[in-house]
Design goal:
26 strands; 2 domains; Glutaconate Coenzyme A-transferase; 8-stranded mixed sheet; 7-stranded parallel sheet
Length: 449
């Protein structure tokens, strides 16, 4: 007979206001990631502002405004950090500090003590099951690592969180939990299912899809481009696709329901759609709930390049802000302003390189329109000061704009310059050639088509 954990649950059940008294001045506090960031506990902690000083909070891409940052713009009481900035984090401006790192290294960074020790871990979970476990819902990420090291774990239970099957390390047991906080079961944060693609994104998608083959394993992200790639694939003749993707998104649901995804050709986690977090529509969350076709894994498994590289024909599709004519990729900052984070871009770009028949794509429009009305090239002579190099020039394979794609692997500096200038906007090619000449990476044999 299964043990009944209801009594232990009731003993640990408290209000959010009582739970946050675990936090003292000077502590580090961890929040759940993405759609599983806690709302009730965050609001309750923010109300203790005047009682506390120098409390540091860390999160990853929360899909809500974090109250502790909002109430303390001078960092006197709370200093808020994000490992990957969400739109809500960007809205906070300098009230959100960035913690950089390779996403797949997150669990080891926590467990090995490289990161500051979290006294308390606050996270949203699905309700406790009959065996006493709280499922991490749509964010496995490095939640288990935080549970392993935190002095206290407080779960904020929400019955609208889907139960996302592992995989592994996708839950925490009542015996490990200090407090349980119940909520009004507020809705999961949702993203639009059908984000329209621009004409430029459609052109980029067409360049990518012509490189894909039967049996390839996909990594897609969020936005108009991956959605449109999914639409093209859904109507294509490709078959037996697999999924090994940091993020589970709505495009995969469409492909699965069209019969395009089987996972039959995968050589790792065969037949499973592997991911470490999910963001999307309510339809996506309903699809994930108790679905054995999907396996959520901690990020040190899902995003481990060697794990990714074991898949057959792994495809990685990611966005960039700027690429220089050497092949360096900047995807997370604009001047000195952090926009997002390294995330899993480098993990999957390198993982695809390690894969038999794998291909990686770094995608961007050829130009960017600035606030002052000027249009500038996204392909540049060199990464400008203040911008962060997300992927070094030794890792990316295909760079893609609406003007074509360039496979820069194994190419010399002058070959790279020629190939990348060829896919720059025509209005900027002459100037880029002059820059390449100044930088002594242009030869008499170079030519632009």
């Amino acid at each position: 007979m299964t043990k009944n954990y209801v009594g232990e649950y009731r003993q640990k059940l408290v209000s959010a206001e009582e739970a946050v008294t675990l936090v003292g001045s000077g502590d580090w506090v961890a929040y759940g990631h993405f759609a599983m960031a806690p709302r009730f506990l965050d609001e309750a902690l923010a109300k203790r502002k005047d009682e506390l000083r120098d409390v540091k909070i860390r999160c990853v891409c929360p899909m809500q405004i974090v109250e502790v940052a909002k109430v303390d713009p001078k960092y006197e009481h709370f200093i808020y950090h994000s490992g990957f900035l969400s739109p809500y984090d960007r809205h906070l401006g300098d009230r959100c500090m960035h913690i950089s790192g390779l996403y797949h290294n997150g669990p080891a960074t926590i467990r090995n003590g490289h990161a500051a020790h979290p006294r308390v871990f606050f996270l949203k979970t699905a309700p406790m099951d009959n065996h006493g476990f709280f499922n991490f819902g749509t964010s496995c990420s490095y939640h288990r690592a935080l549970c392993d090291v935190a002095d206290h774990i407080v779960v904020e239970v929400n019955n609208k969180a889907p139960v996302c099957l592992g995989g592994e390390q996708e839950s925490v047991h009542i015996s490990e939990v200090t407090h349980v906080v119940e909520t009004d079961n507020y809705d999961m944060p949702v993203l639009p299912h059908d984000i329209p693609a621009t004409d430029v994104q459609k052109s980029i998608a067409s360049h990518i899809v012509e490189e894909l083959e039967d049996g390839c394993t996909l990594q897609l992200g969020i936005g108009g481009l991956p959605n449109y790639v999914g639409k093209i694939l859904a109507e294509s003749d490709l078959k037996d696709l697999g999924v090994h993707s940091e993020m589970m998104c709505d495009a995969f649901v469409d492909l699965f329901e069209k019969g395009k995804i089987t996972g039959r050709c995968k050589t790792r986690h065969k037949y499973k759609m592997v991911y470490t977090f999910a963001l999307g529509s309510q339809r996506l969350y309903d699809f994930l709930d108790h679905n054995p076709a999907c396996g959520i894994y901690p990020v040190d498994i899902c995003n481990n390049p060697e794990e990714i590289g074991q898949n057959y024909k792994q495809v990685a599709i990611n966005n960039a802000i700027m690429v220089d004519i050497y092949g360096q990729v900047s995807s997370e900052s604009a001047d000195f302003r952090q926009i997002s984070g390294t995330g899993g871009q480098l993990d999957f770009t390198y993982g695809a390189w390690l894969s038999e028949g794998g291909k990686s794509f770094i995608c961007m429009p050829s130009t960017n329109r600035l606030k002052d009305g000027r249009t500038v090239s996204r392909i540049v002579p060199f990464i400008t000061p203040g911008n962060i190099v997300t992927a070094p020039r030794t890792i990316p394979m295909f760079i893609v704009t609406e003007y074509g794609k360039a496979n820069i692997i194994g190419k010399s500096v002058w070959q790279r310059a020629e190939m990348l200038i060829n896919i720059a906007h025509p209005d900027f090619r002459d100037e880029l050639i002059k820059d390449a000449q100044k930088q002594k990476i242009w030869t008499r044999t170079n030519k632009i088509e």
